[in-house]
Write a structure and sequence with these properties.
Strand content: under 5%
Number of helices: 8
Largest sheet: none
Helix content: 55-70%
Distance between the termini: 32 Å
CATH topology: Globin-like
Structural class: mainly alpha
Number of strands: 0
Shape: globular
CATH superfamily: Globins
Length: 151
């Protein structure tokens, strides 16, 4: 196992911390107008438990082939776009930082998640992506100008 990932896990310390981060992530995602529809009718409690274990396994390089196959199968019909996945990564970064994960460790974790893009993203773009991207760019630009950033 890569020492960097081992260090991340020791800082996060427990599966419960992974679960807490995933709970925080889904609180954001189920309220996100371009992403929430993916969770209609989904047992969020069960999903959180599975995602916490998947996140841990990903960070620790544990059963990666099995994890990738599962992710490929479960995301195949969802039509997740690059824009939506960017938003998910944005929220992951916020959640990691909010849970005290150091920036370098956060970057490593986001890098691992970025590596899953080709498995999870199954659609180029949706009509709603085309509508909201310019809006988010404007918001991000304005916040950047005042030294802030969007959550």
């Amino acid at each position: 196992m890569n020492a960097s990932y081992s260090q991340i896990f020791s800082n996060i310390n427990s599966e419960e911390n992974f679960r807490s981060m995933v709970i925080s992530l889904y609180r954001e995602l189920v309220d996100h107008p371009e992403i929430a529809f993916h969770f209609v009718g989904v047992d969020i409690e069960s999903l959180v438990n599975k995602q916490a274990l998947a996140l841990r396994d990903l960070i620790l390089n544990k059963d990666i082939g099995k994890l990738e196959n599962h992710l490929r199968k479960t995301h195949l019909t969802l039509g997740i776009t690059d824009f939506q996945y960017d938003q998910v990564l944005h929220f992951f970064r916020f959640v990691f930082e909010d849970h005290g994960v150091e920036r370098i460790e956060c970057d490593l974790m986001i890098s691992k998640l970025e590596g899953l893009r080709t498995i999870i993203v199954t659609k180029k773009e949706s009509p709603i992506d085309s509508l909201v991207k310019p809006f988010y760019r404007l918001i991000d630009y304005c916040l950047f100008k005042i030294g802030r950033r969007r959550i």
